[in-house]
Design brief:
Elements (H helix, E strand, L loop, with lengths): L5 E7 L4 H8 L4 E8 L6 H7 L3 E4 L8 H10 L8 E6 L2 E3 L3 H11 L3 E10 L6 H10 L4 E3 L6 E4 H7 L10 H11 L3 E12 L6 H22 L8 H24 L9 H13 L4 H29 L11
Parallel strand pairs: 1-2, 1-4, 2-3, 6-9
Antiparallel strand pairs: 4-8, 5-9, 6-8, 7-9
């Protein structure tokens, strides 16, 4: 099969220099579409200045990454586009990635999405950046899901109905569920794909991101939690157990007898157990274990927010794409 130009869709909001680097890294892609979610830093103007097609999202509607990606996908010419690279505006596409991923998809017509290794650009800057780098490091091979940076077959995305643009987070794994149900495969290559610049230096930034993940877990379980998929059911249950049920049980028990507060030792014990998986002598192992346990409180907050929203029949407005 003769390779056609690879379209690229970049999404972002107020990414500044990160967006400039992202667009510059997409050499060989055509067209390049930048979807802007209400930037005030001149991002859209810069994208236009280098020849990218810019889509400015209507600011009267809530911004989500899925909505932005769908807007870009809708603008592609189906008669000319076979493959599309989707990338977040705070990422740089690695040299050679497009060629490597295209070669794989050409050789595997049953695969809808190819993804690779996303690395955090400055893990030394903060523990939160290091946590991101650990999160990106998933095993190569056929996978259940992908992240936001992918090379995909446009016809497969159309086949699945594109992203659910009302999802606040977790839109990529949800799309992958529907793709796999249609018989498509998702494959992670053992090769560099993108470099990400989180610039996450504060606990509040990490907490908001983790809370958003908890919301995504709960909503994903609501949509696809039935067998055999059981999508994010376990993640939601663990968040609610460690972040809500156990603390409440300990508090109630402590009101009856203060000695029940000793049960809080289950949390440092869990941290030690998780650290053992990564190597007890490693500082990174202890960091990961500590924030994994602490994160259950943020995830539980997000999951409860989703369920409370369902009870009052309202979409969440507290967690939104940046």
């Amino acid at each position: 099969m003769t390779s056609s130009p690879i379209a690229a869709i970049v999404i972002g909001r107020n990414e500044g220099a990160r967006l400039e680097a992202c667009l510059a890294s997409l050499k060989g892609a055509s067209p390049i579409i930048y979807v802007d979610s209400g930037s005030t830093d001149g991002s859209a103007d810069h994208a236009r200045s280098i020849g990218a097609h810019v889509i400015d999202l209507d600011t009267s509607q809530p911004f989500t990454a899925a909505r932005a990606r769908n807007a870009g996908l809708a603008a592609l010419d189906r008669s000319e586009t076979r493959l599309v690279q989707l990338v977040d505006g705070d990422c740089i596409v690695e040299p050679g990635w497009l060629t490597t991923a295209t070669t794989y998809l050409d050789a595997h017509p049953d695969t809808a999405i190819a993804c690779g290794r996303r690395r955090e650009d400055h893990p030394e800057t903060s523990v939160y950046n290091r946590l991101c780098d650990i999160e990106w490091n998933t095993p190569p091979g056929d996978a259940l899901a992908c992240g936001g940076d992918i090379l995909a077959r446009l016809d497969a995305l159309d086949d699945a109905g594109l992203y659910r643009d009302d999802l606040i987070a977790g839109e990529e794994p949800e799309l992958c569920v529907r793709l796999r149900q249609l018989g498509w495969k998702i494959h992670r290559l053992d090769t560099p794909m993108t470099r990400h610049d989180a610039r996450m230096t504060k606990l509040g930034q990490w907490w908001k991101r983790t809370r958003r993940a908890g919301h995504a877990f709960a909503e994903g379980a609501h949509l696809h939690g039935a067998p055999p998929e059981r999508h994010w059911v376990g993640e939601t249950r663990r968040a609610l157990l460690w972040g809500t049920a156990l603390p409440l049980a300990i508090l109630i028990a402590a009101l009856i007898h203060p000695a029940a507060l000793l049960a809080t030792l289950i949390y440092p014990a869990q941290i030690a157990r998780l650290a053992a998986r990564r190597g007890l002598t490693s500082r990174a192992a202890w960091e990961w274990a500590f924030f994994t346990v602490l994160g259950k409180f943020a995830e539980a907050q997000g999951a409860l927010q989703f369920h409370m929203g369902r009870l009052v029949n309202r979409r969440s407005t507290l967690i939104e794409y940046r």
